[in-house]
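Both lines are retained for reference:
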Amino acid sequence: MKLRILGCSGGIGGALRTTSFLLDHDVLIDAGTGVGNLSLEEMRLVDHVFLTHAHLDHIAAIPLLVDSVGYLRGKPVTIHAIPETIAALQQHIFNDVIWPDFGRIPTPGSPYLRYEAVAPGKATDLAGRSITPLPANHTVPAVGYHLDSGEGSLVFSGDTTTCDALWDAVNCISNLKYLIVETAFSDKEREVAVLSKHLCPSLLRIELRKFSGNVPIYITHLKPGEMGLIMQEIEQNAEGVKPRMLVNDQVFEF
């Protein structure tokens, strides 16, 4: 399996793009503004989108992607998400007000997109690739993802604050090779981090104490304008661990 980072920022500006990862050529993990880095042909090849939650920075490109390539495809794009996220998309995005309901366009029998519910701990198998939602703790119902090729695994926390259940699940993965975890705010914004259920460096330190593995750790979802400060504070709080900042176009193979 190969994971390409299309966007990993907590906001936009210049080259910054919000969360979206391309797994092999046909699967997106979240669909933030990073999807805009794909060519039309690359977008046409996307058959599956696995969403962590319904916040705009993680779903923003879905309406435009479906509109851009739906007519070029012979089958719908499948949106995999927990039921609460699916309901939010149907009610607030694909509602014929904000955007056309491509769940029934061009016809109900042959739409441009379809939905498939997922649940924490229940794997979806795509041609030998296992994608399993993991527990997360955010302001809206949310999950992370465990991506497993059989030979190796990568975990993406999604948006989360402290979450013991996440680490209980991660610590059971015997073939883990990479861990991508969010840290959205600096410690000077700790109160905002707590209220918005994100991590800051001091909270990340507490969470990483729960992690029993020893693999490279990458930090995602840093807010624009605070990226340098956040990574400096992470280094000061790391307690022997040396997380690195995730960057666009980074590729992980596992």
Q: What stands out?
A: The CA atoms of residues 182 and 207 lie 11 Å apart. The chain has a mean pLDDT of 97. The chain is about 25% helix and 25% strand.
